[in-house]
């Protein structure tokens, strides 16, 4: 329900049909792809494959202090576009679901003539602070608290990364097996054999003393990230589940 409220507010229109947030659909793209803010700002239309429903992540924007100025004012920071994302492993293709595709289609109507997807009316890349303020305003309108823009992509990502390493990295499997052998009397698996992802399950353990549903236990963007991670795990053919571990005392 909160996800739907967030999307509805981010894409809300005035009675005249003009969007309340000119690039509100940018938040929807980040929501359903899990990309970093700098990666979103660096996106170009040439990175999007509408036919195959994927977006290529290969660049990143960083903010650095302008050493030629002495003041700490916001205007003394400059944006630099890097021809690679934050890490080499971050170069990737991300599948686009229908909501992300629709968001890109709507932004194309506004910014289709500019190289960068998230650009101003004159074609320059938007200030990341403006993107963050827009996110804050949407959260405020929806009464969603404690959700920084980074919250759109973190938290449950570790399980997805571990699952991928388990399939692809033999040394990682060996380390997992060594830990498992301390807990079980029999050998759980042969680390030298590349496993089939559908034969394993990713289980998230949440320690909590509260009662109620998962929606009531987790913050809004934790639920969003869990949803995105579940989509990725399904794409990788992993089973997944969430286990509530009751905190005593």
Number of helices: 9
| Unreliable parts | none
Rg (CA only): 21 Å
Strand order in the largest sheet: 1-2-5
Taken as a percent bin, the fraction of beta residues is: 15-25%
Q: SSE string, helix = H, strand = E?
A: HHHEEEEEHHHHEHHE
Largest sheet: 3 strands, antiparallel
The multimeric state of the shown protein is single chain
Residues in helix, %: 25-40%
Structure class: alpha+beta
Distance between the termini: 31 Å
Global shape: globular
Q: Taking all residues together, what is the mean pLDDT?
A: 81
Number of strands: 7
Verbal overview:
By secondary structure, the chain is α+β, with helices and mostly antiparallel strands. The chain has helices at residues 2-10, 25-33, 37-42, 98-111, 128-141, 157-168, 170-183, 214-217, 220-235; strands spanning 48-49, 54-57, 60-65, 77-82, 92-95, 201-208, 239-246. The strands form 3 sheets. Strands 1-2-5 form a 3-stranded antiparallel beta sheet, with no helix packed on it. It has a two-stranded antiparallel sheet with strand order 3-4. Helix 2 (25-33) packs antiparallel against helix 4 (98-111). The longest helix is centred in the last third of the chain and has 16 residues, at 220-235. The radius of gyration is 21 Å and the shape is globular. The mean pLDDT is 81.
Secondary-structure map:
Layout: H1 2-10, H2 25-33, H3 37-42, E1 48-49, E2 54-57, E3 60-65, E4 77-82, E5 92-95, H4 98-111, H5 128-141, H6 157-168, H7 170-183, E6 201-208, H8 214-217, H9 220-235, E7 239-246
Parallel strand pairs: 6-7
Antiparallel strand pairs: 1-2, 2-5, 3-4
């Amino acid at each position: 329900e909160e996800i739907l409220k967030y999307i509805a507010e981010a894409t809300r229109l005035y009675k005249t049909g003009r969007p309340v947030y000119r690039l509100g659909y940018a938040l929807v793209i980040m929501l359903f792809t899990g990309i970093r803010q700098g990666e979103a700002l660096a996106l170009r239309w040439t990175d999007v494959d509408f036919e195959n429903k994927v977006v290529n992540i290969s660049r990143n924007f960083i903010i650095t202090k302008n050493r030629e100025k002495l003041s700490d004012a916001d205007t003394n920071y400059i944006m630099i576009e890097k021809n690679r994302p934050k890490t080499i492993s971050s170069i990737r293709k991300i599948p686009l679901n229908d909501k992300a595709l629709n968001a890109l289609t709507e932004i194309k109507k506004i910014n289709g003539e500019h190289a960068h997807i998230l650009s101003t009316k004159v074609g320059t890349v938007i200030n990341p602070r403006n993107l963050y303020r827009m996110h804050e305003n949407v959260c405020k309108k929806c009464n969603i608290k404690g959700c920084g823009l980074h919250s759109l992509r973190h938290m449950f990502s570790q399980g997805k990364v571990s699952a991928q390493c388990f399939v692809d990295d033999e040394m990682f499997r060996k380390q997992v097996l060594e830990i498992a052998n301390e807990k079980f009397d029999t050998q759980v698996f042969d680390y030298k054999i590349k496993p089939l992802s559908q034969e394993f399950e990713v289980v998230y353990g949440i320690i909590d003393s509260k009662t109620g549903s998962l929606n009531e236990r987790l913050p809004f963007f934790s639920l969003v990230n869990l949803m995105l991670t579940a989509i990725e795990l399904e794409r990788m053919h992993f089973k997944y589940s969430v286990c509530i571990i009751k905190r005593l005392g």
